[in-house]
Amino acid sequence: MKAGRWILAVSAAALLCSSTATPVYAHKNLKQLIQKIWPQKFGRSKIAKSLPVPKVPNKALEAVLFSKASNRGGMNSVAPLFSPNFLRIAPRPLRPAPTEIRHAVFTLQNNPSARGKGSAFAVEIDGEIWGVTARHVLDDIGRSPYLSVPGKDGKPVFFQVQSFREGNVHGADIAIFRLPQDARAYITPLQADYTLPKANSYLQSAGFSHGNFGWFPRVGVLFASDHRILIRYEDFPIRNGYCGSPLIKNGKVVAVFSGIITEDRARSAEWLSLLSDFKGPINAFNHAVPIQWVRQLVRQGKRQSEPSGVPLKLLGKTLGFLQPDENVQSIQQLRNGRLLKTIYSYPFMDYNHLERFLEIGPNDVIRLAIQQGDRSSVRRRTFWYQWDVQSGQLTRMERR
After folding, report:
1. Own/partner pairs, 277-283, CB within 8 angstroms, 24+ separation
2. Are strands 317-322 and 326-335 parallel, antiparallel or unpaired?
3. What Å distances lie between residue 389 and 23, 53, 62, CA to CA?
4. How many CB atoms lie within 10 A of CB 346?
5. HSE (side-chain half, CA atoms, 13 Å) at 219
6. CA–CA separation, 209 and 189 (whole Å)
7. What counts of helices (H) and strands (E) characterise the chain?
8. Which candidate, 233, 224, 222, places its Cα nearest to that of 282?
9. Minimal CA–CA distance to 203: which of 240, 251, 237, 258?
10. Cα–Cα distance, 135 to 139 (Å, whole number)
11. CA nearest 248: which of 114, 100, 115?
12. Residue 359 to residues 97, 383, 391: CA-CA distances in angstroms?
């Protein structure tokens, strides 16, 4: 009975907070607050005056209410994935790419005679020029591939590439490498733009599909966060070989293309159950990794002293910083010592709002599982950030 009354009290506070001028978490006495605002909605009642309210730290109450407010935007944040307004892709004739773009994008392949190819490009990061591709491309073509660029006579010229730094194939699916000195005469690097594009805006892209170069002037943005940018090509369906190509805004790189999600895969995905309120079809879409992860991978290699990586935030609290070779494996919600929910990594995860699909209570413990390395890594490890909502205590655990 006590538990039911507590839930009723919190629900009343969350429901009515929008009608008060002072934020709910600013009131030191929740009982007085409920007595103050209850009559505004339901009239005066003895129930409201006699309702017992357990003493809960203000920070825990704030976390509960913040969680409820954040969850309201969960579906809205990914609504473009389900928009019925998208038409089926009708291939259009591809136009030539701007000269500076064509000189920045090239292919990678296992050897000069290999048919399997992946896309790559050159970009300037912190004053240095780097080659960039998708991390999983190296699993397909090897880690000592050749890059191919058009020579002065139009015939391809090959240069062998070595010494890659790699991100996590399940997270920052990118790899960077130094361009061979002789290859730089054929390549003009792009500049980077670290500003995330907005949903419903448009980007451009250039890359190779089955070895054929294509320029795509209209790429729709469905969702953007520090973790992923979800996009949809509207001029031509993307095929094998395009992973590792740049996404461009105003001539600058904002992301690296990393994968395709078909309608069938999307409909059968486990993460679709997170959006239980939605019953309609889902559109095919594509993955891209924000270019800031390339900069993080460069800085990780230099071992700079200041904290690098992308902040992991839960209810506004920074739990830690995610590195390019790490991936958020799952989020666990424990209540009164029992496992309540486990959410595995999903493509529209927002690292600034990890609570997006959690209804957090004051007695909860939230555990964030991080995996360093992946299936091809020699050394893998898993560790957790654990946050006690009521006490505010943050601990870090590790399992090798």
Report:
1. 277/75, 278/75, 278/82, 280/82, 280/84, 281/82, 281/84, 282/81, 282/82, 283/81, 283/82, 283/83, 283/86, 283/222, 283/232
2. unpaired
3. 19, 18, 10
4. 19
5. 30
6. 21
7. 8, 21
8. 222
9. 251
10. 8
11. 100
12. 48, 24, 18
Classify 337 in phi/psi space as left (phi over 0), alpha (psi -120 to 50) or beta.
left
**Distance (Å, rounded) from C-alpha 149 to C-alpha 152?**
10
Please count the other Cβ atoms lying within 10 Å of the Cβ belonging to residue 274. 19
> Distance (Å, rounded) from C-alpha 99 to C-alpha 307?
38
Give pLDDT tens digits along the chain (400 positions). 444 433 333 333 333 333 333 344 344 454 454 444 444 444 444 444 444 444 556 667 777 766 766 666 555 666 666 665 555 555 555 677 888 899 999 999 999 998 888 999 999 999 999 999 999 999 889 999 999 999 888 889 999 998 899 999 988 999 999 999 999 999 999 999 999 999 889 999 999 887 788 888 889 898 898 889 999 887 666 777 899 999 999 999 999 999 888 777 777 777 777 765 666 667 678 999 999 999 999 988 776 545 568 899 998 889 989 999 999 999 999 999 999 999 998 888 889 888 888 888 888 999 999 998 876 666 788 899 999 988 888 998 876 5
What's the confidence (pLDDT) of residue 388?
92
Contact assessment for residue 244 and residue 118, using Cβ atoms and an 8 Å cutoff? yes
What DSSP line would sit under 135-193, residue for residue?
HHHHHHH-SS-EEEEE-TTSSEEEEE---EEE--TTSS--EEEPPPGGGGGG--PEEE-
**Which pair of tokens denotes residue 295?**
């900069």
β-bridge pairing 117-125 and 190-192: parallel
Give first-to-last CA distance, the chain, whole Å: 43
Cite the DSSP H helix spans in the chain.
2-16, 30-42, 46-50, 58-71, 99-102, 135-141, 263-268, 292-302
Half-sphere exposure of 127 (CA within 13 A, CB side): 0
Find the DSSP H helices in 243-370: 263-268, 292-302
Q: Which of 380, 377, 303, 379 is nearest to 138 (CA)?
A: 377
Residue count (the chain) = 400
Type of residue at 41:
K
Tokens 């030539």, residue located: 96
DSSP state of 276: T
